[in-house]
Amino acid sequence: MLVSAKEMLQKAKAGHYAVAQININNLEWTKAVLLTAEELRSPVILGVSEGAGKYMCGYKTIVGMVNGMLEELKITVPVALHLDHGSYEGAKACIAAGFSSIMFDGSHFSIEENIEKTKELVAICNEKGMSIEAEVGAIGGEEDGVIGTGECADPDECKMIADLGVSMLAAGIGNIHGKYPANWAGLSFETLDAIQQLTGDMPLVLHGGTGIPTEMIQKAISLGVAKINVNTECQLAFAAATREYIEAGKDQQGKGYDPRKLLAPGFEAIKATVKEKFEIFGSIGKADC
Ligand code: 13P
Predict the structure, then answer these.
(1) Which band of pLDDT confidence, cut at 50, 70 and 90, is reported for residue 138?
(2) 260: which strand partners?
(3) Do 44 and 281 touch, CB atoms closer than 8 A?
(4) Is 163 a catalytic residue?
């Protein structure tokens, strides 16, 4: 059964490790993440962006697929199904479809409007026993080939949003989605520290987990980060393994064109990437704590 992310993140914050949010893109992705979490006894959050939601035929399809897998694969570790960077409408659609967690990204609104909309969604999620993530300070990334720099959130605004009763808070600390440019300035630990001082026990979320050096990840966890989002890294690993298979001509040998064979190296590459993230984030074995 899907669970809210609230308890797993509170435990992670208290235990000084982070739970991975791995974004899913299709059936193979979902199966790879769930099996790895089960094998390593790690809690996990399956992230679904609105774009991936459309690609996978809508939120109801995803809820059906994930619930089916939890049962058929006999998954016993805590799993949350979470909307990533949700709009106000997307958040409501996921609540109705049976997700166990949502992110409402109101970072592009004025702080007043972000507060108003977050507050309304917090009340709905509380009533349904779901977790909710809010965001302050937009997280940059590549858009139309231009890489925007990650903003740093205002710690006072973070405190205002945290006080609305959200389960976790994403705050921009110079992180960006996708690959980091060579001249990236790194994470702003000063900002993170100031946010954690003001928000206390609130589990903080680090987006853009792909390509952040291990020492920076570990320092961020020591300063209150309890959830780290990873998407691009699994995509890169999947693509590289699939490319290798095709370039070796394996799709042309025997029944190598069968999707069950063709997609197998990519599937294994996702599993290996997820395992590495669990190791770095310190969540292995924490499903049973
Ligand atoms: P990356 O694609 O950079 O790993 O970021 C994922 C993310 O933050 C999803 O919200």
Answers:
(1) confident
(2) none
(3) no
(4) no
Tokens of 279: 């190791």
pLDDT band at 113 (very low <50, low <70, confident <90, very high): very high
Q: Name the residue of 19, 21, 22, 23 whose CB sits within 8 Å of the most ligand 1 atoms, as the mutation to test its pocket.
A: 23
Q: What is the rounded distance in angstroms from the CA atom of residue 116 to the CA atom of residue 245? A: 50
Instruction: Convert the pLDDT of each residue in 241-270 to its tens digit.
Output: 999 999 999 999 999 999 999 999 999 999
Q: Return the ligand 1 atom nearest residue 209 CA.
A: 4
Q: Let me know how long the chain is.
A: 289
Contacts 24+ apart (CB under 8 A), 147-151: 147/176, 147/178, 147/181, 148/176, 149/174, 149/176, 149/185, 150/174, 150/175, 150/176, 150/208
| Class of residue 52 by CB neighbours under 10 A (exposed 0-12, middle 13-18, buried 19+) | middle
Task: Tell which one of 173, 207, 274 to mutate to probe ligand 1, the residue whose CB is within 8 A of the most ligand atoms.
Answer: 207
